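Figure-free illustration: sequence to structure, shown twice.
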Amino acid sequence: MNAQIYTIVVTIILVAMAIAVQQLFKLRRAFLVPEGYAGLLYHKGKFVKVLDAGCHIRWGRHYTIDAQDLRKTSLLVASQDILTADSVGLKLSVIVTYRVMDPVKAAHETQNWRGDIYNAAQVAIRAVVGAATAEALLNQRLEIGAQLLALVQPEAAKIGVSVLAAEVRDVMLPADLKRAFADVLKAKQEGQAALERARGESAALRNLANAARVLEGNPALMNLRLMQALSTAQGVGNTLVVGVPGGFVPLKTSAKPAGSGNPEPT
């Protein structure tokens, strides 16, 4: 009888322990944070701590997690109509590269930090473009990107985001202004080509003048130049008739060979 009571008691205790363990495991929470993210842990809606990448175990109820992406990301600020300093209407688009440095501030300081960066970039674009001419926007894109970066970075830092770069992607001009710029560029290229032709002709004339002065001081060089021309034309296969030029300098003859001509008187 005692053995039966002992068995029943042990069975009840084991069942109670199994139920307790089962209920305890229901309180176990496993949170997985991927690499490149930061996990914001909340308990009953209140922020607790930042969890690094990996698997994290918490015991209890009402735990939640919000994963914030810490990787470098690019945001395209779409084209918008802007007036330049010289009252030219154009459209300009910018790519903003950023990275979340403080996920707690980014999640708690603003409702939509991506939208705040987009708006800050738009305001910076209007400020920079409104102070520059259309020609400067086309020729100084790097400088304009640096100005945009200097304006956007402080605003992004307030919400825990670091802006790494701001680059001008497209500058779209009105059709009539495009034609005007194309005509100016064409005129510049044609003027440059004419200048290069004039320089080439001047160089050729200088070379001919130098050659004329050399030949004038050394008439025998004309003979050598004539011989070179004959040697070049020899392999062509045509009959070549050459007249002796007026300035031809006869070559000096060598001493008379023995036995030729009249003997000298003794």
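We now fold a second protein in the same way, so the two outputs can be compared directly.
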Amino acid sequence: MKKSLNLLLTACLLAFANLANAQDQSFFDEAGNISEELQTNLPTSGPKEGLEPIEMVNPRADDIYWQKVVYRIIDLREKMNFPLYYPEIPADNRTSFFALMFRLVQDGKIKVYDYAEEYEHFDDQHTVKFRDLMDKFALPYETKLDSITNDTIYVIDDSDVPNRDIIKYFCKEVWYFDRISSTFNCRIIGFCPVMQREGDTGLETLPLFWIPFETLRPFLSQTEVLITDKNNGARPSFDDLFMKRRFSSYIYKESNVQNRSLLEYNTTLEDVKKEQDMVKTRLINFETDLWEY
């Protein structure tokens, strides 16, 4: 009994000592700058290393009796989407959404897949090699051989990552109703970065590749993002941003028999806007009509 009390007392003293050390830690370092350790360890932020993605339930196929695939455009020129575009060059423990996925592809940590207007195929037959991607879009890089494994290493400066040219993303998502949990949910399937740059015939819009959202999430959950100018310490993860849908977008296609986008069967921008509103209204009405009041 006495031994247990001594152990408990020791644990309490260690806890108080750690708390005191944390409270005594200075906000500024000796050079007068904000302490690098504190920049990513503020009460409103906190270190992201080792964090897991927000868990999502994977329902049984037999329990989904209604689903709708919707395609959106996330325009990075809209203010709400600035956290996905900035910083143009990684700094302050932050990176842009595209720079993050670009480096992951460069390091071979995730796979990307061919962009096709007809349909997306996330399988080995449609994977895109990093070198082929760089050559296709004429992006600058250097190569060297690893001295131990003899593998090819790609050397690309931060300024050569085409982050500034990525002006929007295609986003594929599915809305579905789970009859077991009686919940109406939305799940992001993948992203396609879209590059815009001057070409031989003028301004070109180039979709680069499709990347599944699930393969990105372990890395998104460990990468912080600045979402407001009012508090530089409020830094959730990219995973938080997407799961809480803190981005602006508009619909350009929904799944249909003829596999057409809204622009293919609407002649004016007013007609496109009306069709976008109709798609959103149908999604809202489906959930509302599930219940009786």
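Summary for the second example: Residues 59-259 form one domain.
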